[in-house]
Amino acid sequence: xxxxxxxxxxxxxxxxxxxxxxxxxxxxxxxxxxxxxxxxxxxxxxxxxxxxxxxxxxxxxxxxxxxxxxxxxxxxxxxxxxxxxxxxxxxxxxxxxxxxxxxxxxxxxxxxxxxxxxxxxxxxxxxxxxxxxxxxxxxxxxxxxxxxxxxxxxxxxxxxxxxxxxxxxxxxxxxxxxxxxxxxxxxxxxxxxxxxxxxxxxxxxxxxxxxxxxxxxxxxxxxxxxxxxxxxxxxxxxxxxxxxxxxxxxxxxxxxxxxxxxxxxxxxxxxxxxxxxxxxxxxxxxxxxxxxxxxxxxxxxxxxxxxxxxxxxxxxxxxxxxxxxxxxxxxxxxxxxxxxxxxxxxxxxxxxxxxxxxxxxxxxxxxxxxxxxxxxxxxxxxxxxxxxxxxx
Length: 392
Ligand code: PMP
Prior knowledge:
By secondary structure, this protein is of the alpha/beta class. Helix content is 44%, strand content 16%. It catalyses: 6-carboxyhexanoyl-[ACP] + L-alanine + H(+) = (8S)-8-amino-7-oxononanoate + holo-[ACP] + CO2.
């Protein structure tokens, strides 16, 4: 096992070693996190709507825990498919205006399980270069050809669609909002291309579900494109503040996945308390529009303040705001300096992002106030000057 020490040393020398930090919640303040002795403004969580500590969600979870069970006891195809699962899936299909829905334990299992169920040897997946790792891993598991197109480059995608036009099945897959850049997929163009070349289209709404659309359905609905997308995927761990994931689409799709998606078939169903929490969160996501409005306002303020200060925030157009630093060590120092100033914003380095684009990834929440954000920007500005990320 000596090789491990050596490899880890190399990672550490390149400022690429990762480590786990313990943190805990501040009761009643989902915008803050405790690390060590310090209470930090949390600008790195995906709790976009601030639902992670919602009293009604926590109450139904507690109730389900006390009246049902701690665990579901088996996979859904065995005896784990409790009634609340069935009801939740009906509500999800209704919310997404699709024929049917299927809940997965988490987004990683949904993406990897669905992609590997839909395609196999002799097929091809066209995948944006910046898609989430769970999509990439699903493609590897599927054993299909992996045709990666340059980020949002539709001409490159077209070239690949032509190159692989004779493959048996074709799947185009994209994040709706890219998790490390906060920019949006070109859904209109992807739909035209999928039609032209006879491909299926799957959209991952992990960072857009709850945020876009009149009832938080996601970016496809916001743009009126929901009926042109074959496979809708989203998570309950971010805007919903709980845990889990869904796939929505046709009845045939869901029937296929129940038979073929291995993470669904061979893994234990989510505990009843989680399913209860998701159901409550789904109702709140649809009802509490003010959370979306507040999130948009907070995101606009934060993005424009960083731009005015002269930072490079890429093409962000969402609550995910990258501050691109470039160098790995500089990103770590930036994050460390922010923590000393009471702001938690983690450095994201390769391989999560391409080489030379290490960054601080800010993600905003409806619970952040203008005052908190303005104070944070003043600190970010000072640190940027001090570390030479900004020129005076
Ligand atoms: N897709 C995207 C775009 C994500 O950002 C994530 C989570 N980081 C996932 C899928 C996986 O979701 P989960 O955390 O529920 O496994």
